Structure formats: structure tokens, C-alpha cells
Amino acid sequence: MKDPVIHQLTIPTPFAVGDVHTYLLIGDSVTLVDTGPDTVEGKEVLTAKLKEAGFEPKDIDQVVLTHHHPDHAGLTEFFSDARLFAHCDSERFLTRNHSFMNLHDFFYTEFFKQAGLPEHYLILVEKMKEPLHAMGRRPIDVYLSENAKVPGLEGWQVMETHGHSQGHISLVHEGGAVIGGDLLIQHISSNPLIEPPFGINQPRPLPQIQYNQSLNKLALIEPSIVYPGHGKLVYNASSLVKDRLIKQHERAMYVKSLLQQEETTAFEVCKQLFPKIYKKQLGLTLSETVGQLDYLIFNSEISAADMNGEAIIYQAESEVKL
User: Fold this and answer.
1) Distance between the two ends of the chain, CA-based, in angstroms?
2) What is the separation of C-alpha 49 from the centre of its chain, rounded to a whole number of angstroms?
3) Is the whole model's pTM more than 0.90, yes or no?
4) Residue 75 in contact with residue 46, Cβ under 8 Å?
5) Under-70 pLDDT residues of the chain
6) Residue closest to 273 by CA, chosen among 256, 294, 297
7) CA distances to 89, 104, 166 from 99, in Å
8) Which end of the chain is less congested by CB atoms within 10 angstroms, N or C?
């Protein structure tokens, strides 16, 4: 089958990541993959880009979300007449009902305490909800899961690529193209973000472990091109994945070397890894730090001790005393 026609529509966002790419696919149905943020400028630019391609918002039959982050999923209500497709794990952020937001606040409050954050940093729990203002509230019409076909998109199927977010998916075309959301970006490494568990008594997901598994899945299919959520098209996916995994391992081992010098909390490690930016980007830098710690625990390089509800203390495995 010949390669599909993919229209890349680049939309400005109010976030530090900059512009986001959405993708228009014309098949038996008119499909928009991701929407951009729910901002006045986002709506205006997306409408103009659709017009350049010969369409209006009302012509969109279906919207497929790669993941629930506001820069990708903000305008779900703007396309209210289109069917909404996404992974079921994304829905809690898309609808943000009362019980989930209570879980959200409880989880992050406890998570930050366990990471060793001083109490005055706990205001971050409220600040983390500010980006959600650039999102509508709409439930998913059709859930997508591994190997699912998207109606109206011949030749495409879903690949679950959790890690950057829970519920992250990519669309894989039989001709070799991949629409990858934030799975693989040429100029930056995606941050596997810490999210709440799916129940009050369930363990939290381990996004760094998931993300590495998703990168390996992508490399195994050897895509000819990856259409990313940000930046330039990716033509060297397999080699870029290899490079990213090597660098992530090296960074994790550097974290282990810090713990060999002194056992400490995630917050203290975060300050050493990101001394200049941790205060301004604490949510992102702490997710990165805890992801590396999760990776090291997963690979038996370090251990963690829960100090009776206080901050978790991490130590290099070689220092564990029997």
C-alpha cells in the first residue's frame, strides 16, 4: 500500500515546549490526530490550518488523541460533533471528575512528602493543575488499545506506548510511517511523567520503565518516518532510540554514583541534577529524577527505605548492610 497523505498542522501553545503538531488524515473518514490546546490562539490557528487544507472544523469526522496532555488534547470540545478516540487510561484526565481530582491532590501531596520536599513546596500540587485550564472536559467515545484498527483509516493500527503519559498511544501505518505523539522527538528527550495510580490502594505507575519499553517497541518495527508531536520529522528512529536509551542509562548510573557518596531523598538528588532550574520546573525535574531512581531500583542498583511515612531514603545497593 502506498504511503498515506499526512497534513502536519502546527499550532502554538502557551507552554514551554512551544508549538505542537497535529495531523490531518484523509481516508474514508476525515481524522484529526491531536487537537492542540484550548486557547483562543490555538483555535484560530488550527481553524486557519484546516482551511488551508480545504476543511472546516465541522468537517472533522473523528479525533484521535495520542495522549491527554493539554497541548495535545485541549480542543476535544471544539470538535463536539466528531467521535473521540483515545486509550481508556487517558479518560480520567480528559473528564477530571471530582473523585479523580481528589485522588490527584492526595497522591501528589503524599508523593512530594515522600520525595522529601519541604512543606512550602507543596503549593506545587495546585500549580500542577494550571495547565489543565487549556483543556475541555469530554469523555472518550471509543477506546483504543494495542493493535486496534481506527475506523476510516485503512492501513493504520494502534501501538500502546505508555510512559510519557499513561494511555499514550502511537498510530502505525503498514507502509512504515508512525504518528508518535511525544514518544520520540528529535531535539529533546521526552520526560516520563509521574501520574497517580488507578486506585487509592494501587501502586503508582513506573513511567521510566514503561517509556523504555515503548521506545524498544518503536525501534523493533523500524519505522521509515516518525511524525512527532514537536520538532522535526524523525527519519532515524531506531538509532535515535538506541542513543536515548544509552544516555538514560548513563544518567541513571550517575545518580547511583551520587547515592554512593551519600544516601538521600529524591528531592536532594533532584537539586544535584538540576541545580539551576529545579525551583522553576520542579514538577518536571522531580519526575525525571524519580524516573531514574525507579530505573535503578528496577535493575537492583539501589534500594529505597520508607522511613515510617516520612521521606523515602535511597541508597546505592553496594552500601546496603545486612
Assistant:
1) 61
2) 25
3) yes
4) yes
5) 1-3, 307-309, 318-322
6) 256
7) 15, 9, 18
8) C
Q: Is there a contact between 77 and 53 (Cβ–Cβ < 8 Å)?
A: no
Contacts 24+ apart (CB under 8 A), 295-302: 295/208, 295/209, 295/212, 295/248, 295/249, 295/252, 296/252, 296/255, 296/256, 298/206, 298/209, 301/252, 301/253, 301/256, 302/256, 302/259
Which bin fits 220, alpha (ψ -120 to 50), beta or left (φ > 0)? alpha
Residue 19 CA to residue 85 CA, distance in Å, equals 23
Q: Where are the domains of the chain?
A: 6-96+130-237
From the list 44, 42, 48, the residue with the least C-alpha distance to 20 is 42
What pLDDT is recorded for position 178?
A: 98
State the DSSP H helix or E strand holding residue 127, giving kind and residue range, or none if neither: helix 124-127
CATH class of the domain defined by 6-96+130-237: alpha beta
Which residues are CB-neighbours of 111 under 8 A, at least 6 positions away? 194, 204
For residue 292, count other CB atoms closer than 10 A to its CB. 25
Give pLDDT, residue 43: 97
Q: In this predicted model, what pLDDT tens digit does every residue of 191-233 receive, in sequence order?
A: 999 999 998 889 999 999 999 999 999 999 999 999 999 999 9
Q: pLDDT of 145-189, one tens digit each?
A: 999 999 999 999 999 999 999 999 999 999 999 999 999 999 999
